[in-house]
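Case study 2.
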Amino acid sequence: MIEIRLPISETLVDPLEAHFCEQVRCGWGIQRNGVSDDFFLFGYFDDEAQALEAWKTLRALFGELPETPPLTQLDDRDWKEAYKAHLKPWDSRGLHWVPVWMKDEYVVPAGEIRFLFDAGLAFGTGDHPTTRLCAGRLLDWRDAHGKTALQTARVIDAGCGSGILAISAALLGFRHVYGFDRDPEAVRVSRDNARFNGLNDGDICFEDGGLEAGLKDRKADILLCNIQADVLCLYADTLLGALNPGATLALSGILANEQENVRAFFEPPVKARFPHARIDGRVMGEWSDLAIFV
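Prediction:
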């Protein structure tokens, strides 16, 4: 395993993260341990040739990066420890996302729910602010409507990645959960993660497909779409057309400095379809979301 790790300027953080969110599978990430610490760009690759090719591709887009990256050879143990350093447990309102290697040491209070994850860097781990923002909207819906409503509400995780949001919904007790992704390998990982958390094929339906195919002839009471701002805007009509009356559309993958532009883009078609709709936005660090309540 080859690691690339180097400090980067704060001005590169937002454009790099936006670029990484566009990738279906991405070995890159950005780390900052504390608010006063430097930002670090990191990536993990199978061998040196793959690492250098990935660096060449990234540097073609971001010329401020140095010509030659620092390469570190990691053995299996080093890699596992480096990977684990990026993932920590987190919880919200009785749902706990726990790295699988911490399952024995992390105690979940009685009556609360544990979600074990270890998706690697390829499809998302649930640790990113955009996922947390979407998960917050899911929990909001549960808290507002009560447990009985979970039996009939339809949840769709559009661009499901590793299935974090769809699986969270099923573990919370939602009975009709559907997730899709345009990458068949992401769908496979999602199904594996669901089974790993004790869910059966009948608890969640995962399928291959992009936004148009995935939402065709489907309606949601909660539509979770953690993708990226330009794609959200491109498919605004498709997303709005997949909502039941009274539904919530949670849009994430939006940089904080993009939130107002995305809101301005969505407001006209939202008001045209749903005159009484309400739009609410939240910010978490450099990232944000928009929730549309129709």
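The chain has a mean pLDDT of 89.
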